[in-house]
Amino acid sequence: MTPSAPATTQNGSAHGFFAQVNRMFDAAAAHTDHLEGILHQIRACDGIVRFEFPIKRDDGSIDVVQAYRAEHSHHKKPTKGGIRYAPNVNVDEVMALAALMSYKCAIVDVPFGGAKGGVCIDARQYSAAELERITRRYTFELIRKNFIGPGVDVPAPDYGTGSREMAWIMDTYNQMTDDDLNGLASVTGKPVGQGGVRGRTEATGRGVYYGVREACSYARDMERMGLDAGMAGKTVVIQGLGNVGYHTARIMQDEGDAVIVGIAEIEGAIYDPDGLDVDAVVEHRRTTGSILDFPGARNIAESAKALELPCDVLVPAALEGVITEENASNIQAKIIGEAANGPVTAQADQMLRERGVLLIPDVYLNAGGVTVSYFEWLRNLSHVRHGRMSRRFEERNAERILRAVDELTAEHFDNELLDSLIERIGFGASEQDLVNSGLEDTMAFAYDEIRIIREEKGVDMRTAAFISAINKIAKSYADMGIFP
Ligand code: NAD
């Protein structure tokens, strides 16, 4: 059914970011048979606060800061989404990003509605003490407006914020609500010592790896592009060696046996068809201040040209809008893994699809961060580290099984073999093991769901991902008995 509501926002223009997200939504909704009223409800932004507050600068002057928090969908509570500190944050942007969070959470079965917060500042212009005052005051305002809480709305880091800001938020929340036993779960992305979970830092990159690996596991899909199944041996170019790009590249290389042939950063790009050692490149950049002149690699002065290098998999992991109608026809990669948010423009998307390139959409592929945030929230609510109750038991159990097998076999293992088997097999899962395993399962399962929709409906992966989200959110409403 084609939705009849126009792709406009309550507060934005028909050309704004929120309207763009709604256009993607509408394209997917056209392949479903949900009632227009349900589609309208899913698309709508359920709640938004906009406020201003004064903060005292270190020099004694006063700045008035504008801030927002949008809760896009209350079909599941709490809502969840990052807080960004950026000078151009606006109401349209937070609504759009909150909507994407709703769809992202639904796609990977993380039981949250979507939200996003924004504080209109250039964080680099403020001292740490000033940022702390801003963060605490922002949190105070969210508490007063009931836009934060373990069962209400749970922020996380985004552009311009990190674990330090999350620790300030948690501390402010705890001070103001000192009878809330679950205060730790009011925010995720905290330092491990403050209730954070192991594996959160690398979660988005690790999720990108699992998603691309799952795509490569389908021999039929790979055959269509003239590729062999599997991640091993695939040549990869990565744009951006930050949090997401670095971890994606490192894990693809170390765990997937992929060959990282190109890396692009702000200062330029490097290419070596025989493969670059990711950690060595990071070390080279740390010592020389640049990835350029890496031993054995060819320099590419214009960084964006790296997107056009010959490779099987291209992973833009830096900025939005880097693949456009200008460079789409020069892209040689067969698979594009959208690690960054919105790296491919709508026109480029169409051009690439017409050439048979497999685009793995951002709304699915970079969901590793929110997935592991969910594990952090669960850890905080259970007040126990994942694996704490079972690790030693699993270890002993595996040892008992190995010893029993040894006793049952006519020819006993020699002691050395038995000890080495116990060492290799007889261990219990650590928190990191459990987080990685949960993330792997989540990414693989969601990919397979989206792929089935793609095959059934004859659509691209992005549309299929949105269809998956719409169907799941519509089902939540139906299960609540709110809609038929
Ligand atoms: P980051 O700041 O850690 O890394 C970005 C890297 O890109 C930096 O090293 C920067 O120098 C580099 N870069 C900037 N401009 C470039 C250019 N023109 N060419 C090449 N490199 C350039 O950021 P991040 O957290 O890794 O996020 C990257 C992208 O992934 C963003 O789009 C972000 O929204 C998205 N994302 C991040 C997360 C997360 O958990 N961090 C989750 C979901 C989506």
Question: What's the structural blueprint in terms of helices and strands?
Answer:
Layout: H1 17-29, H2 36-43, E1 47-56, E2 62-71, E3 79-85, H3 91-107, E4 113-119, H4 128-144, E5 153-157, H5 163-176, H6 203-216, H7 219-224, E6 235-239, H8 243-256, E7 259-265, E8 268-271, H9 278-288, E9 298-300, E10 313-316, E11 335-337, H10 346-354, E12 358-360, H11 362-365, H12 368-382, H13 391-408, H14 415-425, H15 431-457, H16 461-479
Parallel strand pairs: 3-4, 3-5, 6-7, 6-10, 10-11, 11-12
Antiparallel strand pairs: 1-2, 2-4, 7-8, 8-9
Helix pairs in contact: 1-3, 1-16, 3-16, 4-5, 6-8, 6-12, 6-15, 12-15, 13-14, 15-16
Bound molecules: nicotinamide-adenine-dinucleotide.
List its traits.
single chain; 484 residues; alpha/beta; Rossmann fold; seven-stranded mixed beta sheet; five-stranded mixed beta sheet; 16 helices; 12 strands; 14% strand; globular; disordered N terminus; binds nicotinamide-adenine-dinucleotide
Structural class: alpha/beta
- N/C terminus separation: 16 Å
Beta-strand share of residues? 5-15%
CATH class of the largest domain: Alpha Beta
Number of distinct beta strands: 12
The tally of domains stands at 2
Q: Indicate the percent of residues in helices.
A: 40-55%
Low-confidence runs: 1-11
What spatial order of strands do you see in the largest sheet?
9-8-7-6-10-11-12
> Can you summarize the main beta sheet?
7 strands, mixed
Task: Please identify the oligomeric state.
Answer: single chain
- Under CATH, the topology of the largest domain is which? Rossmann fold
| Shape type | globular
Unique ligands: nicotinamide-adenine-dinucleotide
Examine the secondary-structure arrangement and name the CATH architecture of the largest domain.
Answer: 3-Layer(aba) Sandwich
